[in-house]
Amino acid sequence: MLRKREALALLVVCSFGFTMPSANAIKVAKASVKAEEKVHVTAPAKSDQRRSASNLFMWKVSSGHESAYLVGSIHMVRPDFYPLPAEMENCFDQSSNLVLEIDESKDDPAATQMYVMKAGLYNDGDVLNNHISKQTSEALEKWITGADPTTARSMQKMKPWFASIMIPVSELQKRGFDTKKGIDKHFLEKAHLQGKKVDELESTEFQLKMLSGFSEDMQNKLLLSSLVDAENVDRDLKDLVAAWKHGDIELMNSVVVREETAHPELKPVMDKLLYERNIGMAEKISEYIHSGNTAFVVVGSGHLGGPKGLIALLRAKNFKVEQVQAN
Question: Between 15 and 92, where is the model more confident?
Fold first, then answer.
């Protein structure tokens, strides 16, 4: 759900597992102002077919004879992002079960929509501008000038945490990114076809409650982070896709921390939305490894790198973590 410098257009594609519920809820917000939904999508760019001659964005995590595969997901991609590397697909086929950040197929869409309507929208005549700082309000007005009128009106119905998700989803959809084409969803479909068991590290409910439970100050920072990120979305998406396709964990992490480095005030956002979650994820992944089955674990790519990322946390637990290479 959100990505931290994944920061927020990238928070959505690299850090949070839920994307479709947020897109559905945007329609609810637009309906609340009696407006016709409009989606503007530009023609997708040519797929970058270049890949690293060796490294994949996948790691084998092992302890003795027990192991699991750890794959970084981009939760929204263009259709031309595929096919994925054959070696990655083969490792999935040989795995016993799939472990996702969240398994959206277990969700009740109506319940998720009702939660967002209650926790993400103002239903008493209140508006967004009454709950954000002058700096955030000015950044929002600047962003709105490039949005369609329907989106502009619906934004004022949203609470800051939900607006912070709507913005990156809108930016990504304009560029042809599809919530149904994420890497995690690709493997979820394959798991269902192959009859593999599917588990989840978190849940849509957990992620929504975390975001909606933030203080007003934190929600303001979330929204500001999203707006700052939107200004550089083309650069960041280019780096993000290149990092994944070349198995470049250092480039990926540089994208993740870019906004935090430039805007230290966003550190509390990073801590809550990424680093604190990584601790819980690392603990659950270690349990799957020791289960004796070979799990195929897919989480947002923003969770993997850096000193507080899953790779470092799993190594600190004395697991051997090796990047998988193409043949």
Answer: 92
d(CA 164, CA 224): 8
pLDDT digit string, tens, across residues 153-202: 789 999 999 999 888 888 888 899 988 899 999 999 999 999 999 999 99
Question: Which 3-state string (H, E, C) describes 242-297?
Answer: HHHHCCCHHHHHHHHHHHHHHCHHHHHHHHHHHHHHHHHHHHHHHHHHCCCCCEEE
- What's the pLDDT tens digit per position in 245-288? 999 999 999 988 887 777 787 788 788 889 999 999 999 999 99
Q: Which two tokens stand for residue 243?
A: 């990092």
End-to-end CA gap in the chain: 33
The strand pairing partners of 121, in sequence order, are: 158
- Between vectors from CA 271 to CA 269 and to CA 273, what angle results, nearest 5°? 65
| Amino acid present at 119 | A
The answer to whether the Cα torsion of 126, 127, 128, 132 is positive or negative is negative
Sequence-distant (≥ 6) Cβ neighbours of residue 269 within 8 angstroms: 4, 7, 218, 221, 222, 225, 260
Q: How far is CA 265 from CA 96, 130, 159, 275, in A?
A: 43, 21, 20, 16
pLDDT (mean) for 290-294: 94
The answer to whether the CB of 194 falls within 8 A of the CB of 92 is no
pLDDT score for 14: 60
The predicted model scores a pTM of 0.84
Residue by residue, DSSP assigns 147-207 as S-HHHHHHHTTB-HHHHHHHHHHHHHHHTT-BGGG-HHHHHHHHHHHHT-EEEESS-HHHH
